[in-house]
Amino acid sequence: MAFLVTDIFPQFAGDPDFRAAFGNVLVDKVIHRRRENTIEISLCSAAPLESGLCERFALSVSQTDFAGAKVEVQNYFRADQLTPAAVWQMLQELKKSQLPINGFLTRDGVEVDLEQQRIILRSPVGKHFLEDIECPRILSELVQQRTGGAFQVEIQVDQNQSAQKAKVRMERKMAPVKFTAAPAEGPRVSIAGLALEDKPATLFAGRFFQPSEVTPLNDLGDGGKITVWGEICASEEKGNYNKSRTISITDYRGSINLKVMSRDGEEEYNRWANLKNGETLVVRGNCTYDKYEHDFVIYPYDVLKVERKRRTDTEKEKRCELHLHTKLSSMDGFCDPGGIVRLAHKMGHRSIAITDHGVCQGYPEAMLATDDIHRSDPDFKLIYGCEIYFVDDMIPIVYGKAKGSLKGRFVIFDTETTGLDPGVEYLTEIGAVLIRNGEVV
Description:
Helices cover about 20% and strands about 30% of the residues. By secondary structure, it is α+β, with helices and mostly antiparallel strands. The strands form five sheets. The protein has a five-stranded mixed beta barrel. It has a four-stranded mixed β-sheet with strand order 1-2-3-4, with helices on both faces. The protein has a three-stranded mixed β-sheet with strand order 5-6-7. Helix 4 (about 85-95) crosses helix 6 (about 135-145) and helix 9 (about 335-345) runs parallel beside helix 10 (about 365-375). Mean pLDDT is about 80; it is low at about 170-180.
């Protein structure tokens, strides 16, 4: 059952702009993606909602109803109400989803026309590139998802005078910079001793390059200009005004930090925060001693993202692991609860059981990983287990040579030490109480 926006969020009823725009708008669903801490609100309206009001709405509810979460608004409306402005807004959403159309589809260089069931994008440049990355198909699917109508998207080259001016502006914007504006795929790369998937490398920063003379991280010598590869294992930001970020990488023979500075460009700097642990980078940069880190670091200028080949389970009949200890089993496990659940599913296992030593603190991470898996595979099963320890309560806990009743008068004392070996450990504390007839006196 759907409700009006003003019914669920009554704080907007007093704002005339919001009341006029959202008075007849229904809230279809609200989805909370816990791992990303994102709230998706789906709004259904007859005509497209104005993007500025949607942004104000998202900002307002993120500060009141969903404090601390990022709120995203998705607008669904009738197909016969589709407008060029609504198409343009969907293109902005595709840009945010990392589709590399920035620089080709800009407001001052592109015209959007609607002709019956066709959406025509007239752009001065980039037609073949946009078709190669399947921009028409992706936009058509998004429009159909939001409106329910099937539209064919075409990209046409506009050679008129205004397009020529836009082309000049485009060429200026596309002048070489230190970082690319958006990820793009390039040729396949190969590195000796590193098994990679048969996929193109993705350009993250700088320019494409073919790695040659890749230096192991345990043999960097005195530094200089080098090429290395590594898997991201940690990331940290320091500073307030002049911020810096270190990204720790390892090739499982050695480790080093990549260091980027905010003064090199705020937009480019912020992109490094989106890198995730487990991603593999091929880096060409300058390795030098950093007096603030008191260690060698690499200042990267060309960075590629590649995908390593992962272990696979080739058995036709998959196993089911019923005895798994995670890092929550002290001294007896080291794997991440969420990571091991994802790995089991990726290898084709239909279920997995977590059986930590006497604890169940690994359940939340494993549960969140299973929730993500259930979006595409609802049949995968997580088994919540535990190795539980029992005490035989039939064994007397008071024993020794002394005879007598516990109802008399005696002293109970307790000692605290730094360990159990009397040869090397120390006594730190003695406590005692006097008991008479079962009461502490």
